[in-house]
Sequence to fold (600 residues):
Amino acid sequence: MKKTFFVYAGALMVSAATMFAQSPLQKAQELLKAKEYQSALAPAVQAVQQNPKSYDALLLLGDVYDAVDQQDSAVTYYFKAYDREDDKPEVLKKLALAYSAVGKHQDALKIAQQFTKKLKNDPFSYLTLSQVYVSGSESNLPEFVNAVEKAQTEVFKAQKINSNLPDGFVALGDINFARKVYELAKDNYEEGLKRDPSLVSARAKLAESYFRLGNLLGTSKEDNIKYVNLSVQEWDKVTRADTNNVKAFFEKGKIQYRARQYKDAVPTLTRYAQLKPDGWLGRWYKAQSLFYILRVEKTLDTAIIVDLESSIKNIDSVKDQANLMLAEVWLLNKEFKKAAAKYSEIKASKGLPDLTDLNNYAKAAINGGDTTTAVTLYIETFQKYPKSACQNALPVGNILYNLRQYDRAIEIFRKRVDTANHCPMDANTARAYHYIGSSYFSQKEKADSAVAPLIEAIKLDSSALYSRNLLAQVYVELKKDKLAKEEFVKVTELGKGNPKAKNDVGNAFANLCSMSLKGKNFGELQKHAQTWTTNEPTDYRGFLYLAISYYQTDPALACKNYKEVLKLAPDNKDAKIQIEQLGCDNKPAADPKGGKKKGK
Fold:
């Protein structure tokens, strides 16, 4: 008996649990009411699977699909619900508007007209028909000739039944919006919201009206900013009231994107993508927003790669633009080989007619180590866009110069100085002349051709001491020592006291000293070295040459200057050797004036 009782009690408990367990339909209804649309989808589908002929389940599943912005599926289940109960106002309205949403305007009109015939005293039947007319007003279908006027007639019918109905003002707003009279549309939507602030669709339409007002032809920049901000504020209210409103996040993000509020658009469209993973257009807006942020801030959000790739895969109309953006993303992120590969793919498929894209491909190639491709691309840009040489001839010429392709380098550098390309005559022109001269000088048999371009470089930029140094070296090569010395001296004079000219001045003094030493002119050597040490007391080379100039005539002063060398360059072998050979440590210190100190 005891066992039988517990078995019976257990059966009662199971029966009670089954009785009070929440059905999929109830669960879906609660989730939909709580605005948990994605979560409601699975139990709503399950409810239809359990009872495929249930009007309530079919209508609910249509509502859930509508909420997650899957309009085609919404139409399917609204129609199945309509097929079960074809005279209920709720399904007539929902099916008519769903047909309009997917562009089936004739089907929408048929259902909406059925609605008004069955429920002649229901103002919402006329308002639904009005919405259908407005939705199809640009369809060019014969039934929709003068559709906006027909829509207004239906609104007036609804207002005769209830003149204070908030939805009537919203319907008038839709009509004025369709007429592009956005100021009146705004007023209508505001009037409807005064009567019922919870009308989410009316608030969304008000937001869109504000945006259109801000972008009308002739609108001032101040009004544009004002109306766009008002639009975003209304969308904020919608998305705060319903954090799972797919359509609201899309529209809000789209407006932020169009208003170039890219940083604000990204989180909005990210939320949209979470709610609707296959919302490819929203992902495209997000990708573009991230792209423009990347261009400015140079900081990569890797989500852009996923969004661009999904746009390429799913939206044919943006594929070319998205591919170019993806290539530039790799370039900006310094993934040069990936960027070059993508640009190569695009060029082979569609071509790269735009100068910016050709330049980007060249940058990617050169930074990825493919200098041959880079040079080919740059030369292509010079041919198509001669003025592009103003910006790129110098770096391209330098590539060729470093590859020791001097004649090709000269050809490219000349594009920068060619007046036909209309490049500004500035420091870069001077540099181009300098490199032409350097390219000639690097081919010893053409050294005499280097003189003219170097003189042009100096004329254009007299402060370019490196050009004077090079011209002097050319004169040395041509055995024109007097001219060479004159140029070296000019460098030392022009660069005196200029920290930026330190290297050029040092090189000029080094060459002057070297030439004097080579000619065994120790007096001249001493003069140049002394000036050098006075002008630049931190360069050990001046003291080294000064020591050499005294080596035979005044060993004590030679020792003194060799020791100065070691103070500045402790590891200098020449100074150490000469100090040892001269026996400097056994000699009295040199008098600063040039003599020797007498011993005590």
Notes: The radius of gyration is 42 Å. Residues 5 and 262 are 70 Å apart (CA to CA). The first helix runs from residue 2 to 20.
